[in-house]
Amino acid sequence: MEIMDAAAPTHVAHRDNHTHRDVNGGWLRPAVFGAMDGLVSNLALMTGVAGGALSQQTIIITGLAGLAAGAFSMAAGEYTSVASQRELVQAELDVERSELRKHPADELDELAALYVSRGVEPALARRVAEQLSRDPEQALEIHAREELGIDPSDLPSPTVAALSSFGSFALGALLPVLPYLLGASAIWPAVLVALVGLFACGAVVARVTARSWWFSGLRQLALGGAAAGVTYVLGALFGTVVG
User: Fold this and answer.
1) 132-156, pLDDT tens digit by residue?
2) For 179-194, b where at least 16 C-beta lie within 10 A, e where not — what string?
3) Residue 84 and residue 91: Cα distance in Å, rounded?
4) Phi first, then psi: what are they for 22, rounded to 5°?
């Protein structure tokens, strides 16, 4: 009795702490990619225009146009990509469902052989496969997990992906435009705000990916700064040539 009581706190602690992040929800990748892309692309676009020595009004219009065009493009692309992925998965599930209906014995042998290949004794593997195959939907889910590496009940949503991408891109792209909307007349406040935003985004992402916050933040800062620097130089060169 004392052993059970002593073990109970350990069990509770393990249960409370042994949780995992949602890695299949369909929102994290487009949200992170959208925010980073919005920041980097709009900052690079605006610095390129500023390098060409164009007017403040032109830079603001360019930034707002880049925000709108990029946000809609990202949302459309994410929706199409995730919807196509779901359709492909559904097609493969239909194939597997048909095989389970037409060749149940072969599918049962296949599942049992898979468990044997993972170290389960043949007789036990057979019994497990038979028990799991009694429910057709459960059998389909197991075969999908084992053969296709997917969870049919946890597929990403195209709508969630599109909305996440749209909102995060718009938010990221707004940062470099914001100083101009508040009255700034030079490019450096926009660059400063965008670089701070890039570092902050990288640091926030690190909380989800378990990377160190400073490494992730500095990585995004370096990539965004490099893109802005290159486009500014190109804008200055093009401005000189065209002018």
Assistant:
1) 888 888 888 988 888 788 888 888 8
2) bbeeebeebebbbebb
3) 10
4) -75, 110
Dist CA 67 CA 42 (whole Å): 7
Mean pLDDT of the chain: 85
> pLDDT tens digits for 206-226?
776 667 889 988 998 999 899
The DSSP-derived string for 218-238 is HHHHHHHHHHHHHHHHHHHHH
- Cβ contacts of residue 125 below 8 Å, gap of 6+? 112, 113, 115, 116
Please state the three-class secondary structure of 64-115 as a single string: HHHHHHHHHHHHHHHHHHHHHHHHHHHHHHHHHHHHHHHCHHHHHHHHHHHH
Of residues 161, 166, 160, 188, the one with CA closest to residue 176: 188
List C-alpha distances in Å: 30 to 157, 168, 197, 217.
11, 8, 17, 18
The type of residue at 33 is: F
* 148 touches 92 (CB < 8 A): yes
Distance of CA 207 to the CA centre of its chain: 14
What is the chain's percent helix, strand, coil content, to nearest 5? 85, 0, 15
Longest dimension (CA), the chain: 88
Q: Is there a contact between 43 and 190 (Cβ–Cβ < 8 Å)?
A: yes
pLDDT score, position 171: 94
